[in-house]
Design goal:
338 residues; alpha/beta; 434 Repressor (Amino-terminal Domain); Rossmann fold; 3 domains; 4-stranded parallel beta sheet
Amino acid sequence: MITIYDIAKEVGCSSATVSKALNNYPDVNAKTRKKILDKAKEMGYSPNSQAQALTKKKTWNIGVLFEVEGKSRTGLTHYFFAQILESFKEYAEELGYDLTFVSEKIGNDPVSFLQHVRRRHCDGVIIANFDYENEKILELIHSKIPVVVIDYNYDTVSSILSDNYEGLKLLTQYLMDLNHKEIVYIHGQHNYVTDIRLNAFIDTLTDNGITVTEDHLLEGMYYDKDKIYNKTLEVLQREDPPTAIIFSDDYAAVWGGKAIEKMGLRIPEDISIAGFDGLEISEMMKPRLTTVKQDTNLIGKQAAKRLIDIIETKNHSKVDIHVGVELIKGESCKKIGN
């Protein structure tokens, strides 16, 4: 391994001068600094990350806490959160940070999330789609480790929040404008995001003079294709089936579409459907799915930017960043009546 002492010997200066030049200290003249940097590059010098961590109290390592709720446990194959984490990774790596996935064990040794983060010397942690009321999550939240969460709002840590209320409101109103009054929302299991979207759905129907009943709402489960399929069949077999179904996300709309096909019905001629997320899969559906596009690239980038700002400035002030959504009018919804 090439050391600063090797570079000093080649350049003909002290190791202290080499160290200052490599760390951009101002008391090294430009000519000497250039000579040292050129020689370091030529010799293939790489700084000792452990020594840097001890000196700067920084490891350039970010912890990632990520889990998909529900029995499906789709992990990084979850389209929506995979795209967010990919964006987060790209931005963090551009600034020199590596990622470590945090779990409740290291090897065969069971640990808490906070213990894992401390053992891996993470500078900060991003939390996405977890059980945010989990005691071990709260232990991490209340520690001195910099934390940013996605799609949840604590009192003390920064959040990146997609505008779920506006998205479901836009989508519901769009169906109302197409004269749909019998709309069923097959939503995911109750959590922070689901409840925001439910409020938007109920508020929009109410604002349009419709009394919301239990017939308008049916609880499914995110990324559980069997439950989605069966819940859709249940809705379609009602004595008075709806004219439109809003699914919890685009993935659910795909499997809901399978159930509709099974019943011998056509989209949108017999029933209109819509999803949420605006993933590539929605563009591949025939007819193209009407959905609400969330900006996964911006969500991931803003999460990385905010977390790194906290790490580098030591300013833990709570900052909530809201990311807008866009209604995508596909061909899966049809105007009915007059």
